[in-house]
């Protein structure tokens, strides 16, 4: 059982009872002026705690303490009864006045979405006329290729095929900075030293 709470409550009760006595003694002095001291009404005597269990005894002690506290705080209030200030009550606006009288419904209106589509006339294309032009171009290209070759044609062809191997076998020259960069990148991206061929 925890007696710490009871001890604290007892000390608080003792303090309030001492305060109440000192206020009671100061209240018995005659006051100057037209105020007449009112006799103090004593609260009904607290009933003695019955010999029950500990929770009932503690409850009755707490009730006695609260009554004593209430008795001590009543003189401190000095009879000033605070009445709650009443605010003026305005009547609520009538809902009928705020109601919208107009209807949101509109009568149905039938609109036809079928309308005549006007398109530009199509241009007529005749495949026969295009085919004749295509055949004429092909015949001219075939005659240009199928003619006899002259000596100048042979010389131009010989110069062209002799130039191709020289173009394909030319070696590009690298600067020392480019070679150094290639070695660095080979070290970075290449296989580890332990897996390289000796």
Rounded average pLDDT: 76
Number of helices: 6
- What is the gyration radius calculated from CA atoms? 59 Å
Strand content range: under 5%
General shape = elongated
Distance between the termini: 89 Å
Structural notes for this entry:
The protein is mostly helical and 198 residues long. The chain is 53% helix and 0% strand. It has helices at residues 4-27, 54-77, 95-98, 127-146, 151-168, 176-189. Helix 1 (4-27) runs parallel beside helix 2 (54-77). The longest helix is centred in the first third of the chain and has 24 residues, at 4-27. The protein starts with a helix and ends in a 9-residue tail after the last helix. The relative contact order is 0.05.
Write a concise synopsis of the structure shown:
The protein has 198 residues and is an all-alpha fold.
Task: Give the helices and strands, then pairings.
Layout: H1 4-27, H2 54-77, H3 95-98, H4 127-146, H5 151-168, H6 176-189
Helix pairs in contact: 1-2
Q: Which terms summarize this structure?
A:
single chain, 198 residues, mainly alpha, 6 helices, 53% helix, elongated
């Amino acid at each position: 059982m925890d007696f710490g709470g009871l001890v604290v409550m007892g000390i608080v009760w003792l303090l309030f009872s001492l305060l109440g006595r000192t206020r009671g003694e100061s209240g018995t002095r005659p006051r100057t002026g037209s105020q007449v001291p009112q006799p103090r009404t004593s609260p009904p005597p607290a009933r003695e705690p019955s010999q029950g269990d500990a929770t009932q005894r503690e409850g009755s002690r707490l009730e006695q303490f609260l009554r004593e506290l209430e008795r001590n705080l009543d003189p401190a209030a000095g009879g000033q009864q605070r009445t709650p200030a009443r605010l003026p009550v305005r009547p609520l606006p009538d809902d009928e006045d705020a109601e919208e009288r107009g209807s949101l419904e509109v009568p149905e209106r039938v609109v036809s979405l079928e309308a005549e589509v006007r398109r530009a006339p199509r241009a007529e294309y005749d495949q026969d006329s295009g085919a004749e032009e295509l055949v004429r171009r092909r015949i001219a290209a075939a005659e240009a290729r199928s003619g006899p070759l002259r000596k100048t044609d042979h010389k131009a062809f010989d110069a062209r095929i002799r130039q191709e191997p020289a173009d394909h076998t030319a070696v590009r020259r690298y600067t020392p900075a480019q070679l150094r960069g290639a070695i660095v990148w080979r070290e970075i991206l290449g296989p580890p030293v332990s897996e390289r061929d000796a």
